[in-house]
TrEMBL record:
SUPFAM superfamilies: CheY-like
Database matches in Pfam families: Response_reg
Sites of 4-aspartylphosphate modification: 61
Native species: Pelomonas aquatica
Keyword Phosphoprotein carried by entry: yes
PROSITE patterns, sorted: RESPONSE_REGULATORY
Record keywords, A-Z: Phosphoprotein
GO-annotated biological processes: phosphorelay signal transduction system
Signal peptide residues on this chain, from the entry's feature table: none
Identification of the protein by name: Response regulator
Amino acid sequence: MPGSFCMSPKTVLYVEDDPLNVMLMQGILDLGAGCRLRVARNGAEARSAVAAADVDLLLCDLRLPDVAGDALLAELRVAGLASGVPALLVTAESEDVATRLARAGGFDGCWTKPLDVAATLRSLAHWLGHDPRPGS
């Protein structure tokens, strides 16, 4: 998927405490998304990030040091994350468990680790509004 599908700069907030997973996500975005990646390493940083700047897509790890990722979305909405901003739970849990946790937490979808690069790029395009096909 060459080129950028973010026509204007979009901001993806990734709430993730594992530096290797952050590097992988940055690499995926560098391949074709053309988006800015902001990283919060825990729930407190995520709450500050959404209060300070607009976010176009939220990606949230399930296991964070200070809060369960599946419970964090409600807190981020209160902290300033707009209700129309799509949110995806990212986890190493099985797809069935991930889907159940995402649904219960109010997320729009989920990605399971390890991430498939091509599928992740397609899903990013969908959630950032550049692809009408469903993606989760």
